[in-house]
Write a structure and sequence with these properties.
Layout (H helix, E strand, L loop, with lengths): L5 E4 L6 H12 L3 E3 H9 L3 H8 L1 H18 L3 E3 L8 H6 L5 E5 L2 H7 L13 H19 L2 E4 L5 H11 L1
Parallel strand pairs: 1-3, 1-4, 2-3, 4-5
Helix pairs in contact: 1-8, 2-4, 3-4, 6-7
The chain binds shikimate-3-phosphate (S3P).
Subunit structure: Monomer.
Function: Catalyzes the conversion of 3-deoxy-D-arabino-heptulosonate 7-phosphate (DAHP) to dehydroquinate (DHQ).
Protein name: Multifunctional fusion protein
């Protein structure tokens, strides 16, 4: 059975796309991102999907995108930061080489801070980051085979740590 070589999960801004692209290059494979698939399917930006149709609808589209990618893609795949909130999505990840890219709250505020393009962080970024991490940390850990902390590492060092860990 084929499937993705590596699946990256972790909060927004942790570097999933940068690291994912680096890993794909190192492994001579392709990189895919479920956020991009959702945008292509819906024909609108993620912030518009949240605004027009709500988070629940977004999670449904996201689960579908994850399922399609897992079935077809054999390279490096990254999931949106909140994909693990959906139980169906977590079930799809069982047994796969999932890597949790982590960062602490201070680092998240430094890297992402207030980012209106990311609908979940539109107000009070520090409090929202703390709540978001508290709600999600255990879910990332539940689906992941291994955790790689990114706080004081460059994307190259993170990619190396992932290859060493798997
Ligand atoms: C989200 C993270 C985003 C995107 C959406 C919701 C979240 O993905 O899926 O804005 O709930 O954390 P990235 O982690 O790729 O930014």
């Amino acid at each position: 059975m084929s499937g993705p070589l590596i699946v990256l999960v972790g909060p927004m801004g942790v570097g999933k796309s940068t690291v994912g692209e680096l890993l794909a290059e190192r492994l001579g494979t392709t990189y895919r991102d479920t956020d991009a698939d959702v945008v292509a399917t819906a024909g609108k930006a993620i912030s518009e999907i949240f605004f027009d149709e709500g988070e629940e609808r977004f999670r449904d589209l996201e689960r579908q995108a994850v399922q399609d990618s897992l079935a077809r893609h054999t390279g490096v795949l990254s999931l949106g930061g909140g994909a693990v909130l959906d139980e169906g999505t977590r079930t799809l990840l069982a047994g796969l080489p999932v890597v949790y890219l982590s960062m602490d709250v201070d680092e998240a505020v430094r890297r992402v801070g207030l980012n209106t393009a990311r609908p979940l962080l539109a107000v009070n970024p520090r409090r929202q980051w703390r709540e978001l991490m508290d709600a999600r940390r255990h879910l990332y850990e539940e689906v992941a085979r291994t955790t790689v902390a990114t706080d004081d590492r460059t994307p190259e060092e993170v990619a190396r740590a992932i290859l060493d860990a798997l």
